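Here we describe the complex-level prediction in full. Unlike the single-chain runs in Section 2.1, the two entities below were treated as one system.
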Amino acid sequence: MSNPTNLKYTTSHEWIKTEADGTITVGITQHAQELLGDIVFVESPAVGRNVTAKEECAVVESVKAAADIYAPVSGIVVVGNSALDSTPELINSEPYAAWIFKMKPSNAADINSLMDAAAYQTHVDSEAH
Amino acid sequence: MTLKQTPLNATHRIMGAKMIDFGGWDMPVNYGSQMDEHHQVRRDAGMFDVSHMRTVDIKGDGVRGFLRYLLANNVDKLQFRGKALYSCMLRPNAGVIDDLIVYFMDEQWFRIVVNAGTADKDVAWMKEQAAKSALSLTIIPRMELAMVAVQGPNGRAKVWQVLPQTEAATKDLQAFQAADCGDYFIARTGYTGEDGFEIILPASKAEGFWKSLNQAGVAPIGLGARDTLRLEAGMNLYGQDMDETINPLEAGLAWTVDLKSERDFIGKAALLANPPTRKMVGLVLQDRGVLRGHQVVHTAAGEGEITSGSFSPTLNLSIAMARVPREVQVGDVVQVAIRDKMLAAKVVKYPFVRNGKGLI
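The structure predicted for the assembly as a whole is:
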């Protein structure tokens, strides 16, 4: 599966979608879910929590391991995806639809510093070696 | 460091395995989905490459007496050819060197199967003890042998489909019994809580056997599912649930230690001198989350620690084995520290699952 070109990416394998209202939606990439394997638990951040870029703010656990999810930019958490409480495996089947949380960035321009799909793919390839 | 490979290494890769470094061995962790592989074994049949484990034959006059002293369980329970016994091998301070299965072949020959990561130190220890005895025993690591486990409700039938010549000799085997069928040493043992066989065979035959099983509908299963299966079955994993710093009485293995007979064995004096203060219990998480090894367990009687924990695919919740103060009782609710939270877990008896059925 190729990484959607309308999204931004982090080196820690989150994807970021900028919404029309200026909020951003965050999930984990196809590559990340593949590395983790069968996902069984998602803990999304508390609504209203202030996070700084690269701060641990959510946890995704597979049968195998627990992985921290990092805030891609600084801002405030708006909502978590409660659908993942009962169906965390959606992250495996539809990683780019199964979002984990939405946040409002403190500075919208911070999004521009994140990687595009091509740069992210280069990053994934480099990690494989 | 170059990873060690089993005779099935190339076959795993062709079958799409994701390979990992498992104690210096290049082994398959899964062939796609660990969850699917887990269910495959509980519901039908799966096969595991366990060739990294080592078969050690001990031969010579007096081998029974030697093992009576070497092992914490009593090999006098083995009275007919092929009968198997699970035991720990202890240091004089009763720390567990390894857990193993010993098979009685004849009075000149016992066969032992030990863990992969401990195999070298096990053989060294056996040789050291043999040298101290007045016996002339030979201790023979069988490096040329592979091992395949076929587990699940349909596992035995699939083996008979592939090796019809072995059916007559193995169809009446009870649990913990084995039969020598030419190249194939077939034991009704396993590490999943399901029925099945563990088969020791020449490395040169491993690939053909594996492929025939696959054609018969037996799916390959990686080490990931092997771990969740054995955890549900309440079976200890060496290096995680016990090691040389833990004695078997505090590792949930009192049932494997024979303290009743007169015989002396290595570690016995230390076990008698130090009554256990901790014990193993099962935990079932009451909140959402996943129990993992090394998480701290808070009980009314003091702290304990999770030794193995994961998500249970069969029960669809998180379970763990934990070492806790002796005073903790089944039915108690304890608190487990997971990241910045304290989550409630209920104390239960394990196994959690046996023969496909949840027991809690």
